[in-house]
Amino acid sequence: MSLPTNFLWGGATAANQTEGAFDKASRGRSNMDFVPSGPLRDEIIVNGVADFTDQSGLYYPSRKAIDMYHHYEEDIALFAEMGFSVYRLSISWSRIFPNGDEKEPNEEGLKFYQQVFETCQNYNIEPLVTISHFECPAHLIEHYGSWANKKMIDFYLNYCNTLFTRFKGLVKYWITFNEINMILHAPYMATGIRIADEENKNQAIYQAAHHQLIASAKATKLAKEIDSNNQIGCMLAAGDTYGYTCAPEDVWAAKLADRENYFFTDVQVRGYYPSYFKKRLEREKIELDFSENVLDLLSNHTVDFIGFSYYSSSLISADPAIQETTEGNLFPTLNNPYLKSSEWGWLIDPLGLRITMNSLYDRYQKPLFIVENGLGANDVVEPDGMINDDYRIDYLREHIKMMIAAVDEDGVDLMGYTSWGPIDLVSASSGELSKRYGFIYVDQNNEGTGSNERKKKKSFEWYKQVIKTNGAVL
């Protein structure tokens, strides 16, 4: 089995989970700066906070994260040592526009990312940049209602114009929004919207999603105008849904669940709202702007590739009596008796990756890019300093095998693979650092204490060999 010689290998992180330095270089506050770790987190990532004030006794992990702001040179050097040809990272919107509605950007923020991208290029690592990764300036939430407000499109476009212009020649791979379908499961974390109890929840969610889809199309148009070499991708939190049984009702329930996610990529890749979704809007009396200029925009400015995260498949039943679920990820799913699960309850389904790749490629015939896949686990530093994370190697090996099979045997067009996260970082769902993903260990605990020293795990050398052999040695 083989992959193309130009296949992109690397890892993926996000600014709010790695950078820290939330109060440095004129950065403004963002939604995730006010999301604590602990028992309040689950509710806040869905519903948001009442106001942007610090609550005593709470730890806000995104504010410190792993301090990559001051360690990026060391970290990128380690990525280069593993052989990365691509590094997916996000830009903190509030580091470029502290409030989000300014006309002129914060030069200190631009200089920081320019240094990061130049460091990547010095190692022949292509940056794959997520423009908005679970982050929105707090000012835009407080004064405009975030993506519930149509004005957000212009603020986002001003931000994009700044990035595309300043980093022309340094960055050519872009993703407009991280896991755009996560608005369905964690609206505040994903988009910054706060839905009042008296509001029509679906109207609020799909109105915000519609604004993001318009913004994505406009950003795609703008990126091509500024630099025709730019490659723009969408991103989906993916994973096929299985029916609990072969009963037709379960099969239909699985199809409906998958449509919930595919609606986003149908618009971004095909360029139009699918008929099944329009019928749903009619039934639920959800009103969106489908004026001719909006439809033309969506149709004429589709993405170049489909980025997606894959952690697991899902399982669904049409029978409400079947309720044994696991909610290790933000997607609640029935327990699948044929699958093992991680320490955090995430189901492990390597074949599901191949199935998902085929579903996406069969549907769209556009290049795919696996931009997140990984295992969160407790890692133990042995007395000799070693971190023997064989469980992580096993997880990634089995998934990469299925990835290669999808390319080699099924003919799926795949651009690359970036594992989540190549270095330990703050978990988006739980806020923990003990839920470790990396090939590189960071000496810090869930309360933010530790030396922040970086240390290679056993998986570091394993992944280095995988990249060196282009997946031939697993």
Automatic annotation (TrEMBL):
The keyword Nucleus does not apply. SUPFAM superfamilies: (Trans)glycosidases (SSF51445). Keywords: Glycosidase, Hydrolase. It holds the Pfam family Glyco_hydro_1. One of its GO terms (biological process) is carbohydrate catabolic process. Coiled coil: none annotated. The active site is at E372. One of its GO terms (molecular function) is beta-glucosidase activity. GO terms for cellular component: cytosol. The keyword Hydrolase applies. PANTHER family: 6-PHOSPHO-BETA-GLUCOSIDASE, GLYCOSYL HYDROLASE. Belongs to the glycosyl hydrolase 1 family. This is 6-phospho-beta-glucosidase. The lineage of its organism: Bacteria, Bacillati, Bacillota, Bacilli, Lactobacillales.
